[in-house]
# Entry
Amino acid sequence: MNRQETSSSYQELSEDVEHADANLEPAEEQVDKEDLDDASSTILPILDSNSPSVRFSKSCLKNVFSVILLFIYLLLMAVAVFLVYQTIADFRDKLKHPVMSVSYKEVPSYDAPGIALYPGKAELLTCKHHLHNYIPPLVNPGQPGEIECTTQRINYTDPFANGTKKFAVIVEGPRDVKQQELVFMQFYLNETDQDFSAIDYLLFSSFQDFLESPNKPGFMKACESSYSSWKFSSGFRTWVKMSLVKTKEEDGRETVEFRQEISVVNYIERRAKASGDQLFFVVFEWKDPFIQEVQDIVTANAWNMIAILCGIFLALFKAADFAKLSVKWMIKIRKRHLQRRTQALNHIS
# Structure
């Protein structure tokens, strides 16, 4: 009986030990898992790129970069506004100050100009056309000779002195510039009470217009009002080389101006009886076959200005759109950062 009791007690003790060992193993496994979790929780915040400190540094850099870009685009917008102002100012300045354009047009021959001479008491002795820039030697200077030129004599009222009559001899000028055509004239003045003797003349653009004019005195008054007059003196051969300048005005009118190069050669007197009388020699010739054309050109191009303004305004709108998106992006990043910070505080608490 005693043996049975001891065996039963031994059996109960062994079962208790096995049950204790079974309970101890899960506890040790739970302790090991908790230790591993603690170790991982202490190591991961250092190595994880998504930690709050790393996210804050990235968002800060992004915000700084966005602010820098925003200031750059604001600066570009200011430059664009200045360019718009400068473009408009330059366009207005070019409209007010056109540029003079000079071109040359070559012609085989000219329209015969009109040569108006005011001899006063002097007399036209000879008038001839010569070619190839050659004048033959004088024959009987001071004596009437051949007048081969087309001439018109006219009286009209001086436009600058009311009531004063003027006498003019209108001579047809040279045409053929290629063959160097010239007109040679000789005048004679018997006596004069003046200390200096000279003959006035003026040039106008077309002798044919004068012939076809129904009011020749009015035509000459208009020419004298529009053209300048010159002089050639006695005792010299005055050689006048003409050039033509056409100017186009802003209102579309075209004006004609003569420019001259004058050379003077002394006349050697060989007559035996030449006391008191004066001889005048004058030559008219075209300088070259080029007509100078002058006109004012407005260099301001409205289409260029419109294209520049369109490009500037497009850049302005793009910059404004980028600035708007940058501000929205910064606000969004700021909200995300605040949300994550709030979640982190709630998790800690």
Summary: Confidence is low (pLDDT under 50) at residues 1-14, 17-49.
